[in-house]
Amino acid sequence: MHVTGALKIKKGQKGGGGLAEPALVRWLLIAVALAFLGLFLVVPLAAVFTQALDKGVDAYFAALREPDALSAIKLTLLTAAISVPLNLIFGVVAAWAISKFDFPGKSFLITLIDLPFSVSPVISGLIYVLLFGLQGWAGPWLSAHDIKILFAVPGIVLATIFVTFPFVARELIPLMEAQGKDEEEAAMVLGASGLQTFFRVTFPNIRWGVLYGVILCNARAMGEFGAVSVVSGHVRGYTNTIPLHVEILYNEYNYAAAFAVASLLALLALVTLVVKTVAEWKIQEETM
Hints:
By secondary structure, the chain is mainly alpha-helical. Helices cover 82% and strands 0% of the residues.
């Protein structure tokens, strides 16, 4: 009996995360992880900035000041400025409804939120072509009323909204479910309205999760290529976002300018990584 119990305890200790690997194995695993990160993260980032500055700092800033580049930057910022707030509102409302209430169709709503993760961005763009193209369902009516969706800013914004709307909701749903409903129910019993409960009780507990979702949503909105490429028409200086402008410069063998503009997205990725790490740390503190 005692021997069996001791063996069970020993097995439990091994399975619970207590077994110390030999030093050689630990260092080998660390070396493999660092080599993987260096090969697939550090080296590509270093290559982007090296190529961007290959012809000097003056050429770097000249590529960013070029009219088509400025147009691409402005369109990218405009698209993000429209899509991110809309996705923020949707994400908060959807997470609030899913985590705090039970209603018919709840599982179906969660499935719809996950839909852009399982659909190729190119297919997402083609959906809008089928809807708003000249041969699409709404195409003849839009053409008759001189309303442009495809190959114009509205189409780019719609495609970006579609591929980015899960990010905020998907970050908040598990966080709000883990926090439960006790604080909200107590606030309602004390006479707080729905808005008061949200802004004074719920939002302070999810603010870092909101920031996390917004940062991820913004990074995807500014870096989206597939869906935007389908609906933009690649009109230079008008419907090209930063990723599309980088593609054009690269295809024209203007590598220094292409990498200079691409470095803006690389900087965005680095900022996103830092904010993401801080937000994750804050979320862990608040849920402990």
